[in-house]
């Protein structure tokens, strides 16, 4: 038991680190595409350390104080609920805690905490960012849910392990290929989840100063930061498990999550930004229609 | 024993003497007038008592002028006649008192003479046993009535009197001709004699014609559609006292004669005649009243409709093809209807006399600050509209259940009319109870006494009729209901009422303790009583501003819900259902939303009447007995429950009813009362539909549930009023519960029952907190709040946990419901519904954040700087309701195990297929979820993170609320910084078209459409004498032609 | 037979007045006519050709009364009906008087305020 907790803690640290690294890589690639030098790929670690070492921090109240904890625990929890390596006693972490439905709802916890803390800061940009984020979530959730339901019905299970097992036996058994439309819908909604361009209006750095966390600084922000990166990792892992056949080893997991990570990165650098209503409308139309193809197929096949 | 002739003789003599005396001794004339009425009342009362006590076994026959009956005229007084006389003189007495208090019309002597003659004539009509004598009494009545109507000498009164006279003369001509032809055909005028001769067999087509001649004359007097224009004019134009006497007494005497005539002169086509004229009069009256702005004419339409119902009932009563049991029941219904309508209408017309102005709008505010007026008006309206506990309710129920199955269209007709009645009466009620309080006249003795009679009769009527219909109403619940009403007596002190109510509820729990069994009733009973009790605590001190009827009504709602869940028959369920509905109507009406209460009344009534129709179609009244043929009963019965759950498209009452009802009541409304709909639907699914049959209908119900959840959630997102937002949210959540019930699988039911209880915890908590917040802040408008976390930390914490539970986020209790529901949906394979359900619950996050942000977060507004934490009682309830959210979050089996027991007690269901393991937690075939682990994991890691943060973090500097990094500027006021208005404006741009108020518009269109039809229909009453006369002639010819069977 | 026809004619004339005339007085007259018509009709129902009025104090009617007189009952009825008719007419006329004093007109179109 205690060793499992220890391993989970290690995995968590690894997840944060990998998440920070991926963030750095993304900044680098973006910079190169824009013909800049860009920061080093380790820049995020440097930032985190800097924030963590700051001498004073400003607090706006209890909820504001607690929010980074919510964020970190929510992100870490989601990360630990998703099995990294299937059938590994340690790297499947706490996936016994719940199935896919649990994961989908647990994901919200961190966001909720962060939203509340941000809102308590009293800065108008914070709730603007939060409401944008929530609205966008309502947008991308539809195609995502469609594809998740497709998988659950097709594999007759709601557990992530079950879905991974159903994809074993070769690359063509991946849901990416067996249910291409559902996968397409889910990957499009991943763009929304990662708030990458063209669905980046939630953070809108130039306009509302990164939205929700606008008032956060120093140690608070360092927690937020780590929470965010581990949360991103959790999503990559989830997509890997759902569509790319899971991972048999840690190396495979690294590779596959990197693949998932690359997808929004490619999109984000070549698109302008949607306004919020445009992105919601987009999510409720094209990816939804695409996902519906597989949903119809599933419901007719039964 | 009093000889009935004495009544007639004395009255006649007094009328004569008053005529002389009034010129010399006005006072004595008055004394004689009143004494005569008192004597008549007593004398007829004694005769009636003689029949009741069994002292008189057979009708009294009094010979007049020395000749024995077949040749001489006789009076024939039986039980019914005696009762009618009592009724006539009671109404006359009440009317006379009213006259004395407000001032008699001048010249008063003549008015008194006419008044006596009118009551005398009506009594004579009732008593006589001779057809020609009948004609004479009809004429006495009519002439007195013409005079009395004209006696107030206003333009309207004269016009009405003239029209009445013209039409009345034509009608009496018919009667006279009929009587004479009757004599010619049978050689006799004595009713008994003729009846005997007809039994001997001289019946013929000619005789049918003669009978119809008399009947069509009587139909004019009975104000049958379309020849009742004169009556409406009289109701509108004449002195209300006269109208009360006419509508309350004289017409009833005509009705008795109508019954007797049709009884003595059997007519093969009478049944269809009564059904056609009764039905059309009933419907026309009820619907034409919709467009009526003049209150007295509105009452007139209602009277006409009630007469129509009576005529309809007469048709069944005299139909010898019916079983004698059902004819007895119909007879009882007729008696009740007459009693009920007479006193209620007397009360209403005399109340109308106390209101200045004749339009509906002039009644605005009359119920406010006039307790006597309010009492009389409410009890009379409830009586006429057939709302429990009044006698009219039983009349309707008796009548409906006595009608045989092949005439179920008549039942439908009665129910539709009853619904129409609710619409216009409660429109008046709504107007009267809204706006500023207004002085009403103080002449309230007679209306008060007549409505008191209605109220006093209630226990007797309940006792008799619940036994007659063999409805086993739960005696303990009835007792508790009685005690609840008694709480009204503590009305002088609100805290005392509060304590008394708590004690009563405690006693109720003690009394009903044996019923807390692990079955569906026990499950919901626990929810009702413990939930209702908990919420009762929080009502004080907010109830200080509410009327003293608040606590009685509150308790009645709670105990009637107990009655609903403990019912073993559908009819008993219906009775308690109606009690619950209308007491909650009163509570909703105590808030600001009068229109909402009206809509609630209409939808509830529609649902309840549909349910009654459905119950009527069931093969057995016992719940769960008999195979139900077809889908119709199930659909009809579930309508009532769907209305209570506010399932789309029956939801349009909910927003304002929840949002604008008394804040102290809303938690109960949302937390528990809407669950009665769940209980009912559960009954329907298990006992009528069957959990495994009728999949298409259940799939349809599932869609209804999920679409309700989706659209109501969306509406909640854009709602800016705290309580209305919670209202939409509540309706949406109940939509999920419906979805689970519709699934009909153990897992789905498990989800529904779990969510039923859990939704009570968090939604009641939210509404209680809202009540506390509104009590402190004084507004329910979200953009005007904000930052209250600094003033109400406890309430914030409670709300936060409730919201997390509402959103279904682990590790709190709400997630179990979601997990079970989705597992059930996927197991069942309702794919598309699953997708919509997921989406709806995602949308819920939007309004969840909105609640927390708009109320508690952001900037504290200046006007709220001095706000305090919610009152102690509210805080206590918040804590009470918050604990289960956490405990169930870690140990959902505390609730799921009892639910399994409930499920195994139901036919067709079994415990949910969940296996509980130590590591994986709850495991189904599909997935697994370890609640305790998640709770421990979350709490533990949160604490670790917190401690770590506290140790490692930098020095924390707490800053003021305006101290934000805002583009380098220093903001001056909190208002500038608060993001409160239009929180989801961008989202509205994207999906706003989805919340286009289509359903509201459709319902409104239906309402307007019916109104337009009613407007067209009532144009037939042109107000022109010639036209009225022509209607009478034409209709009589048609009657003679069609119903006589003569070619 | 002539009585029959006459009485029906009277009733119809009265009815015509009630249904068609726009003057209140004429309507009241129509009612009266109807009333009279009905009375005549009743009398004629009891009439038996060749017999006399049922006044029993005439000497030669005392024996075999029932075969010599017409049916007495309709006549008794008519007596009552006439009284009633007079009463109705009186009330009607007084109402008409009051109406006229209010509006100074007898046109029925002026008395259509109560409707619908």
Secondary structure elements and their pairing?
The complex is a heterotrimer of chains A (302), B (1047) and C (116).
Chain A: H1 2-33, H2 43-52, E1 56-59, H3 62-81, H4 100-120, H5 125-155, H6 160-165, H7 175-178, H8 180-193, H9 205-208, H10 218-243, H11 250-268, H12 276-301
Helix pairs in contact in A: 1-10, 1-11, 2-10, 3-4, 3-10, 5-8, 5-12, 8-12, 10-11
Chain B: H1 4-21, H2 26-53, E1 60-63, E2 74-77, H3 79-102, H4 108-127, H5 131-150, H6 155-186, H7 191-200, H8 205-221, H9 229-237, H10 240-264, H11 270-288, H12 295-317, H13 324-352, H14 371-384, H15 391-402, H16 408-433, H17 445-468, H18 475-486, H19 494-511, H20 520-537, H21 550-566, H22 570-589, H23 594-617, H24 632-645, H25 654-660, H26 666-689, H27 695-717, H28 722-743, H29 746-777, H30 793-807, H31 814-828, H32 831-856, H33 872-890, H34 893-904, E3 915-917, E4 921-923, E5 928-929, H35 931-952, E6 955-958, H36 974-977, H37 985-991, H38 998-1018, H39 1025-1043
Antiparallel strand pairs in B: 1-2, 3-4, 4-5
Helix pairs in contact in B: 1-2, 1-4, 2-3, 2-4, 3-4, 3-10, 3-13, 3-17, 4-5, 4-10, 5-6, 5-10, 6-8, 6-9, 6-39, 8-10, 8-39, 9-12, 10-12, 10-13, 11-12, 11-16, 12-13, 12-16, 13-14, 13-15, 13-17, 14-17, 16-23, 18-19, 18-21, 19-20, 19-21, 20-21, 20-26, 21-22, 22-23, 23-24, 23-25, 24-26, ...
Chain C: H1 2-20, H2 24-46, H3 65-68, H4 72-103
Helix pairs in contact in C: 1-2, 2-4
């Amino acid at each position: 038991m205690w060793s499992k907790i220890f391993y989970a803690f290690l995995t968590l640290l690894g997840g944060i680190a990998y998440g920070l690294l991926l963030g750095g890589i993304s900044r680098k690639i973006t910079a190169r595409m824009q013909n800049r030098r860009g920061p080093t790929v380790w820049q995020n670690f440097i930032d985190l350390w800097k924030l963590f070492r700051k001498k004073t921090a400003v607090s706006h109240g209890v909820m504001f104080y607690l929010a980074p904890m919510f964020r970190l625990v929510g992100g870490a929890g989601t990360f630990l609920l998703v099995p990294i390596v299937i059938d590994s006693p340690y790297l499947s972490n706490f996936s016994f805690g719940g199935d896919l439905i649990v994961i989908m709802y647990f994901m919200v916890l961190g966001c909720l905490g962060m939203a509340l803390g941000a809102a308590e800061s009293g800065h108008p940009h914070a709730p603007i960012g939060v409401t944008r984020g929530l609205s966008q979530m309502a947008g991308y959730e539809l195609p995502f849910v469609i594809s998740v339901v497709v998988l659950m019905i097709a594999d007759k299970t709601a557990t992530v392990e079950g879905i991974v097992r159903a994809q074993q036996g070769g690359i063509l058994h991946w849901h990416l290929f067996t249910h291409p439309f559902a996968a397409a819908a889910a990957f499009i909604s991943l763009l929304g989840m990662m708030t990458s361009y063209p669905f980046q209006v939630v953070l809108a750095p130039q306009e509302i100063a990164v939205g929700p966390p606008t008032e956060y600084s120093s140690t608070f922000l360092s927690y937020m930061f780590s929470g965010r990166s581990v949360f991103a990792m959790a999503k990559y892992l989830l997509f890997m498990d759902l569509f790319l056949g899971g991972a048999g080893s840690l190396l495979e997991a690294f590779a596959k999550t990197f693949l998932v990570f690359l997808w929004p990165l490619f999109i984000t650098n070549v698109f302008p930004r949607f306004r919020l209503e445009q992105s919601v409308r987009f999510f409720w139309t094209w990816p939804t229609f695409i996902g519906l193809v597989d949903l119809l197929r599933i419901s007719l096949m039964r | 024993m009093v000889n009935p002739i004495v009544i007639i003789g004395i009255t006649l003599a007094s009328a004569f003497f008053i005529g002389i005396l009034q010129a010399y001794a006005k006072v004595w004339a008055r004394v004689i007038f009143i004494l005569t009425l008192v004597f008549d009342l007593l004398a007829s009362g004694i005769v009636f008592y003689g029949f009741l006590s069994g002292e008189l076994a057979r009708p009294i026959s009094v010979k007049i002028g020395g000749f024995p009956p077949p040749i001489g005229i006789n009076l024939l007084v039986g039980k019914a006649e005696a009762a009618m006389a009592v009724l006539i003189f009671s109404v006359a007495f009440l009317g006379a008192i009213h006259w004395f208090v407000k001032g008699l019309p001048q010249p008063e002597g003549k008015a008194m003479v006419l008044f006596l003659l009118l009551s005398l004539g009506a009594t004579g009509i009732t008593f006589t046993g001779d057809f020609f004598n009948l004609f004479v009494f009809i004429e006495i009545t009519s002439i007195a009535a013409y005079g009395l109507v004209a006696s107030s000498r206003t333009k309207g009164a004269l016009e009405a009197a003239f029209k009445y006279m013209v039409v009345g003369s034509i009608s009496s001509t018919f009667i006279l001709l009929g009587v004479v032809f009757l004599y010619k055909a049978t050689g006799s005028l004595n009713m008994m004699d003729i009846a005997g001769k007809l039994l001997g067999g001289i019946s013929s087509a000619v005789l049918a014609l003669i009978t119809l001649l008399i009947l069509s004359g009587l139909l004019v007097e009975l104000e049958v559609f379309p020849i009742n224009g004169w009556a409406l004019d009289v109701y509108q134009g004449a002195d209300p006292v006269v109208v009360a006497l006419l509508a309350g007494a004289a017409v009833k005497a005509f009705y008795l004669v109508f019954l007797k005539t049709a009884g003595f002169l059997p007519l093969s086509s009478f049944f269809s005649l009564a059904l056609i004229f009764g039905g059309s009069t009933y419907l026309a009256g009820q619907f034409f009243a919709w467009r009526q702005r003049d209150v007295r004419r509105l009452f007139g339409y209602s009277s006409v409709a009630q007469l129509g119902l009576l005529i309809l009932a007469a048709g069944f009563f005299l139909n010898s093809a019916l079983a004698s049991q059902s004819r007895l029941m119909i007879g009882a219904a007729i008696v009740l209807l007459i009693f009920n309508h007479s006193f209620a209408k007397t009360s209403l017309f005399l109340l109308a006399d106390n209101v200045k102005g004749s339009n509906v709008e002039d009644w605005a505010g009359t119920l406010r600050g006039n307790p006597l007026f309010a009492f009389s008006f409410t009890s009379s309206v409830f009586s006429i509209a057939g709302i429990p506990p009044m006698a009219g309710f039983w009349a309707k129920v008796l009548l409906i259940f006595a009608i045989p199955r092949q005439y179920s269209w008549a039942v439908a007709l009665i129910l539709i009319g009853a619904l129409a009645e609710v619409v216009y009466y409660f429109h008046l009620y709504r107007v009267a109870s809204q706006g500023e309080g207004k002085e009403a006249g103080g002449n309230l003795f007679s209306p008060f006494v007549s409505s008191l009679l209605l109220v006093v009769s209630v226990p007797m009527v309940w006792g008799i009729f619940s036994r007659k219909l063999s409805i086993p109403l739960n005696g303990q619940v009835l007792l508790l209901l009685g005690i609840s009403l008694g709480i009204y007596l503590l009305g002088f002190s609100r805290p005392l009422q509060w304590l008394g109510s708590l004690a009563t509820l405690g006693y109720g729990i003690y009394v009903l303790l044996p019923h807390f069994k692990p079955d569906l009733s026990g499950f919901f009973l626990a929810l009702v009583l413990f939930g209702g009790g908990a919420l009762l605590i929080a009502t004080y001190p907010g109830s200080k501003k509410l009327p003293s009827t608040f606590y009685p009504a509150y308790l009645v709602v709670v105990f009637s819900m107990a009655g609903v869940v403990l019912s073993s028959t559908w009819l008993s369920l219906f009775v308690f259902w109606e009690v619950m509905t209308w007491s909650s109507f009163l509570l909703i009406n105590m808030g600001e939303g009068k229109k909402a209460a009206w809509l609630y009344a209409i939808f509830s009534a529609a649902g309840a009447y549909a349910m009654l129709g459905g119950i009527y179609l069931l093969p057995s009244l016992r719940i769960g007995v008999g195979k139900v043929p077809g889908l119709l009963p199930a659909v009809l019965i579930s309508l009532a429950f769907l209305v209570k759950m506010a399932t789309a498209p029956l939801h349009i009452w909910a927003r304002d009813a929840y949002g604008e009802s008394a804040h102290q009541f809303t938690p109960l409304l949302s937390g528990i009362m809407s669950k009665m709909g769940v209980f009912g639907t559960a009954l329907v699914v298990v006992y009528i539909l069957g959990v495994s049959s009728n999949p298409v209908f259940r799939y349809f119900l599932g869609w209804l549930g999920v679409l309700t959840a989706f659209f109501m959630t969306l509406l909640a997102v854009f709602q800016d009023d705290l309580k209305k937002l919670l209202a939409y949210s509540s309706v949406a959540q109940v939509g999920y519960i419906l979805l689970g019930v519709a699934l009909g699988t153990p897992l789905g039911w498990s989800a529904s029952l779990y969510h039923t209880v859990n939704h009570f915890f968090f939604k009641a908590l939210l509404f209680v907190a809202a009540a506390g917040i509104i009590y402190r802040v004084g507004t329910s408008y979200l953009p005007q709040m904000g930052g209250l976390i600094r003033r109400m930390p406890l309430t914030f914490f409670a709300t936060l946990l409730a919201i997390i539970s509402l959103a279904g986020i682990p590790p709190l209790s709400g997630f179990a419901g979601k997990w079970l529901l989705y597992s059930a949906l996927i197991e069942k394979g309702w794919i598309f519904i699953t997708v919509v359900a997921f989406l709806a619950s995602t949308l819920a996050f939007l309004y969840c954040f909105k609640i927390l942000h708009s109320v508690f977060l952001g900037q504290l507004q200046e006007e709220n700087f001095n706000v305090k934490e919610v009152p102690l009682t509210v805080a206590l309830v918040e804590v009470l309701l918050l604990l289960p959210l956490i405990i169930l979050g870690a140990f959902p089996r505390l609730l799921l195990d009892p639910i399994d027991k409930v499920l195994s007690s139901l036919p067709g269901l079994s415990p949910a297929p969940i296996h509980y393991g130590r590591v994986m937690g709850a495991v189904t075939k599909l997935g697994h979820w370890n609640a305790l682990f998640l709770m421990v994991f979350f709490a533990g890691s949160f604490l670790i993170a917190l401690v770590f943060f506290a140790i490692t973090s930098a020095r924390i500097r707490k800053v003021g609320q305006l101290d934000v990094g805002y583009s380098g500027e220093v903001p001056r006021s909190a208002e500038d910084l608060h993001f409160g208005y239009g929180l989801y404006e961008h989202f509205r741009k994207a999906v706003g078209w989805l919340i286009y108020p289509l359903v509201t518009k459709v319902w409104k269109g239906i309402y307007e459409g019916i109104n337009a039809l009613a407007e067209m229909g009532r144009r037939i009453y042109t107000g022109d004498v010639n036209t009225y006369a022509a209607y009478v002639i034409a209709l009589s010819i048609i009657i003679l032609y069609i119903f006589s069977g003569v070619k | 037979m002539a009585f029959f026809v006459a009485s029906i004619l009277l009733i119809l004339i009265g009815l015509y007045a009630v249904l068609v005339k726009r003057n209140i007085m004429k309507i009241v007259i129509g009612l009266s006519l109807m009333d009279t018509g009905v009375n005549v009709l009743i009398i004629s129902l009891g009439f038996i050709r060749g017999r006399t009025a049922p006044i029993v104090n005439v000497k030669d009617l005392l024996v075999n009364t029932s075969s010599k007189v017409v049916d007495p009952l309709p006549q008794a009825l008519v007596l009552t009906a006439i009284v009633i008719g007079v009463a109705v007419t009186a009330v009607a006329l007084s109402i008409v008087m009051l109406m006229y004093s209010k509006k100074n007109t007898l046109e029925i179109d002026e008395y259509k305020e109560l409707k619908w």
